[in-house]
Structure formats: C-alpha cells, structure tokens
Amino acid sequence: MDEDEVIITADQLVAPVPAVNTTEASDKPDFGPLSAKDLQDKRNEFRRVRVPPHRLSPLKRDWLKIYSPIVEHLKLQVRMNPKTRMIEIRTCDETEDIGAVQKAADFVRAYCLGFSPEDSLALLRMDDLFLDSFEVKDVKTLNGDHLSRAIGRLAGKDGKTKYTIENATKTRIVLADSKIHILGTYQNIKIAKNAISSLIMGSPPGKIYANLRTIASRMKGRF
C-alpha cells in the first residue's frame, strides 16, 4: 500500500445529523382554531329588503312566520320599517353563523317575490337552493294579447301546467304578471326554465308533459 493512499471507512460516509434545538421549536406560537363568532367583524352586518306594495298585506298576516325563524334560529335582529317599506335585518352579539344575515335576506326576498313562507323557509334549511328570475320578453318579444296568451299557457287551466312543471322538476314557480320566479337547485331550475321557455315559444303543453315525464323518471332513477 502506498503512503499517499487514504483509507475511508463506512462510518465516515454517514453524514452527521444536526441536533434539533428544542428551545427554538418550543418558542413557536400555537394558534388554536377560530370559532364562527371570532371570525365576525366587530361591526354589525346590515341588509335591507324592499317590500312590493302588493306584498304588504300578506306580510302583516304572515309576519310571525317570517320573524320567528330569523330571530330564533339565525339569532338576528329584524324589523319592518313602514316609512321606507323595507325589512331591515342585522347581526347582533348572539349571532353565531357569519352567513346568517345573507340567508335571512334571501329568505325575505323570496317571500317578497311571491313564494309562501313554507317554501321560502327552505332557503334557510338547505344550502344548495337558489332563486332565478326572468321575464317572458327575455325569451320571446311578445305584446298585447300574444303576451297574455303566453302567460296563460304557462299557468294552464286551474294552474295545471305550472303544478306539473313544479312537481316534475322539484321546484317552486311564481308567475307575477310577465315575470317568472323559480326556486330550486341549480340543475332543477335549468330543467324548469327550459320547459317554460318552450311553452313561451309556442310548444304544445302535451309535448312538454311528455318531456317532463321522461325527465322525472330519470331523476327518480338517480336517487
């Protein structure tokens, strides 16, 4: 063996492990999870919903049904301002859910559009429900008697056509003059909107019923 040769053993090939400074690790701050109440802004959130003139009398009759779920379940403050004809909603110290004020505003807005308190209440209980509004003129430009006939086709005799679309698509529909409001899930609203648009365009109700029966059977097969 030459004198210049260097012998390296296996122990010398292992890299030294740096020592962990326990004092440095323990100095790191430990943040616990925040509750919904801690996430709230110190300022109270506020919403106003305008009440149409034709919904003032029903609102007085159903005020307890509107007031109770907002105050008792969502822990919000609500009042009716008769001067401005607006329902005012705001958070308070007891409010737990940061999205409660928006849910309450959607609930009141659905009632003001013409939905019953029971149907509007679904917006508070389920997160995947939405409101969609459009006019007959958005689908087809109609005036005078043509517009009246189109609205009549949407309702049907004694509301038969409207109820059929509602039951087949699991939605709720309000016909307010030439405006149409639909309450339901995104997919169901799309199906109901297509059926309503076909009626406005002049399709016979029998053809719409057949399509809805097919769609209803497919929806039952999914669940």
Notes on the protein architecture:
The chain has helices spanning 22-26, 36-39, 56-61, 63-73, 100-113, 117-125, 136-139, 144-155, 160-169, 186-201, 205-222, and strands at residues 46-50, 77-81, 86-90, 130-135, 172-176, 179-184. Helices cover 49% and strands 14% of the residues. It is an alpha+beta fold. Helix 10 packs antiparallel against helix 11. The protein has 11 helices and 6 strands. 21% of the residues are buried. A 3-stranded antiparallel sheet has the order 1-3-2, with helices on one face. It is globular and about 85 Å long.
List the helices and strands and how they pair.
Layout: H1 22-26, H2 36-39, E1 46-50, H3 56-61, H4 63-73, E2 77-81, E3 86-90, H5 100-113, H6 117-125, E4 130-135, H7 136-139, H8 144-155, H9 160-169, E5 172-176, E6 179-184, H10 186-201, H11 205-222
Antiparallel strand pairs: 1-3, 2-3, 4-6, 5-6
Helix pairs in contact: 5-6, 8-10, 9-11, 10-11
